[in-house]
Specification:
This protein is of the alpha+beta class. It has a single domain, classed as Herpes Virus-1. Helix content is 32%, strand content 11%. The chain is built from three helices and three strands, in the order H-E-H-E-E-H. A three-stranded antiparallel β-sheet has the order 1-2-3. The longest helix has 12 residues. It binds zinc ion (2 copies). The site of one zinc ion has 7 residues, from strand 3.
């Protein structure tokens, strides 16, 4: 079975720049660093449902939810032009 995964190379220049704009607002960090800063934090990613490992790269959205960096990039590609948070459904602002 082949699953459809959006490819960055298949996107238009406009779409790529939109994605970059969203990602700029979600700094990439190590999970252990984010975890160390916060009292309460999800221990798994609600996009792939896998637990975060201490060395995994994650991104924190403006609504303070954490996802794997790779997962949130694919999510944004899927949800263009109006991506929202998979956790709380708040629309990401650019
Ligand atoms: Zn994930
Ligand atoms: Zn959220």
């Amino acid at each position: 079975m082949v699953q459809y995964v959006p490819q960055l190379s298949a996107l238009s220049v406009n779409e790529k720049s939109q994605i970059k704009g969203y990602l700029k607002k979600m700094p990439k960090q190590n999970y252990c660093i984010v975890e160390g800063e916060k009292m309460q934090i999800a221990d798994y990613c609600t996009i792939c449902f896998n637990e975060f490992g201490p060395d995994e790269k994650v991104r924190e959205t403006q609504c303070k939810h954490i996802f794997h960096s790779d997962c949130i990039i694919i999510w944004i590609m899927w949800k263009l032009p109006r991506p929202h948070c998979p956790n709380c459904r708040q629309e990401f602002s650019r």
